[in-house]
Structure formats: C-alpha cells, structure tokens
Structure to design on (334 residues):
C-alpha cells in the first residue's frame, strides 16, 4: 500500500486543526499559505514539515498523494480543479463551492480521473450523529416528520459570503445524512444583516425532504451564547443532539409520556470528530472507498443553499436603525 503524504493549503483558524491532526497521524508533508509570518509559525511548530507560498510546489510534487484545501469558500473551485487535474486526491472544507454547477463539475472530474473528492462535512463523523442515525434506521423514532438544526454563535470576523455559507453546510449535510432523506426543495428562506450591510449574519431556511419530512435550519453569527442543537421528531419519539454539552449529548424523549427521557450512551466520544474525518480521508485514498461526504453529497448541499440564497436576496429583511425606526413610527402615527 502506497504511503500517504498529505499537503494542506491554508493555515487559518480551521487549517491549524487540520494540520495538527494530519501531523499526529504521521502523514503531513507540506503546508502552503500566502503569509510569510504564518509559515514561520508552522515551521516552529513542525520543523520537519515543508512550507511554501506557491501551490505549484504541491501540484508538481509526485510524492504528495492527497491535499486538504482550507481556504475561503470562493477559492475552492479553482484550487480543487487544479489539484484534481494534477492527479491529487482532495479533501476540501465545506462548502465544496458556492455554485452548484461548479460542484457538479468537480464531482464529475474526480470520477473521471478515479480520484477521491471529499468534502469537510464534519458532523457526518461525529459519534453522536452516527448513533442517532442508527436509532433512526432501527425505527426507534418511528416515521420521521420534522427536523430542526440550530447553529448559533458569535463570529467577530464575518469573512465569508454569509452565515449560511459558513454554517448551513453542516446543517443540511447532517440532516440529510442522519435521516437518510434527500432534500428536495427550499420551502422558505430569509436572512438579514445586523450590521446593515450586504453580509447576512442571521438566516432561516425551511426545506422539504423526501417522504414529506420538513427541516428547519437557523444559523447566526451574532448569538453570544453558543447553541448547537439538532432535533429530529418521529411519530414515536423525539431525539435531541446537543453538541454544546460535555456529556449526555444525545437524548430520546417519548412523544406521549411526559418526562420519559433516555440518555443514549456513545462510543468513542472522547475521540475528536475531526481526527475521525482525517482518518476517513486517508483510508479512502488508500483503498479507493467512496467518502461518506463525497462530491455528490457536497453538490446536493450547495444546490439547496444556492436556491435558498436566491430566495433570501429576493425577499431580504432590513433591520432598521433608530433614525429609520423613528421616521417609520412617526409616519404611522400621522
């Protein structure tokens, strides 16, 4: 079996975690970043690792078998396409792209070249999510009727296209994976900016899934108290996965008996989900196994979010400042 040598492009807030995990898995070869000071820090932490500002060093290195792309989402398409054309397996952070057509092109290119294309839908590797998926498949919840995912936190940088493109890929991919249902269409979508600019930092999306299940997703960059919660309701029971809890993250509630709650024990909860995801990529590269979060999975997610964004932009909500509110109120009183 060929030895895996992994390069990472992008050493930002999340890239640091990716680098740490592949280094600890003894497969990290090279780190690429445009910032010279950043590369100095990488070299201090990992003296044996190559660093470069030029992506061509990775494209032209025959020893590098796989590359992880941890750059801003609008750069993903161009970088991933170049890597696939260079014969590299690719693990790209979510979203695979912000354009469904581009996501489809990358998926088809990877298939054509027989390469692994994996998207960083991290929660598909979380032990609690996988345990919930098993319960659903066993029929414990009954027929699924509703799912709700809330991902609320503070982001002081707001450097993505919107909170939806930053967080909702997790929600859509997790909801589809855990329920086993494909999202069919966006029922409604609304977003607004608390800073009164073009970057929406609060979004709400309702999605129809196959079988008639309705899913609702709320994401926020302005919530001081972190809230990461998935609710799945069936005809028998309701499950709640709360990832902010240090333990007892997954609970079942009887729909018909008050206070009848069951805490679900989880295997491997002490293992970082990101480590499991990185290990999965390495295994897929070595065996040719299709990733759990493959390009097709990424394409479906982007298609839904692209549709949601079009609806949001067509019915965008504006938060009024005090001057505007006073003017509106005075007009109403006339």
């Amino acid at each position: 079996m060929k030895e895996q040598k992994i390069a990472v492009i992008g050493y930002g807030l999340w890239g640091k975690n990716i680098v740490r995990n592949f280094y600890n898995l003894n497969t990290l070869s090279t780190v690429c970043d445009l910032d010279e000071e950043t590369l100095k820090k990488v070299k201090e932490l990992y003296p044996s690792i190559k660093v470069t500002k030029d992506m061509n060093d990775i494209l032209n290195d025959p020893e590098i078998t796989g590359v992880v792309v941890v750059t801003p989402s609008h750069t993903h398409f161009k970088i991933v396409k170049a890597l696939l054309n260079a014969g590299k397996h690719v693990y790209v952070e979510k979203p695979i792209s912000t354009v469904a057509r581009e996501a489809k092109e990358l998926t088809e290119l990877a298939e054509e070249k027989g390469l692994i294309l994996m998207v960083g839908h991290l929660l598909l590797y979380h032990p609690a999510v996988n345990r919930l998926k098993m319960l659903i498949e066993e029929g414990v919840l009954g027929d699924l009727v509703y799912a709700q995912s809330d991902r609320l936190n503070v982001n002081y940088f707001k450097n993505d296209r919107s909170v939806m493109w930053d967080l909702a890929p997790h929600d859509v991919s997790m909801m589809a994976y855990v329920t086993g249902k494909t999202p069919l269409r966006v029922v409604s979508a609304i977003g607004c900016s608390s800073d009164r600019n073009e970057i929406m930092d609060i979004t709400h999306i309702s999605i129809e899934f196959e079988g008639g299940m309705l899913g609702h997703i709320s994401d926020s960059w302005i919530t001081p108290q972190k809230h990461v919660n998935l609710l799945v309701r069936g005809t028998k029971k309701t499950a709640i996965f709360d990832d902010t809890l240090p333990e007892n993250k997954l609970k079942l509630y009887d729909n018909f008996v008050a206070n009848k709650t069951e805490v679900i024990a989880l295997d491997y909860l002490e293992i970082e989900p990101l480590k499991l995801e990185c290990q999965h990529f390495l295994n897929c590269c070595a065996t040719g196994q299709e990733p759990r979060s493959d390009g097709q999975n990424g394409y479906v997610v982007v298609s839904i979010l692209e549709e949601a964004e079009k609806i949001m932009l067509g019915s965008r909500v504006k938060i009024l400042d005090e001057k505007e509110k006073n003017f509106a109120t005075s007009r109403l009183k006339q």
Q: What stands out?
A: The longest strand covers residues 222-234.
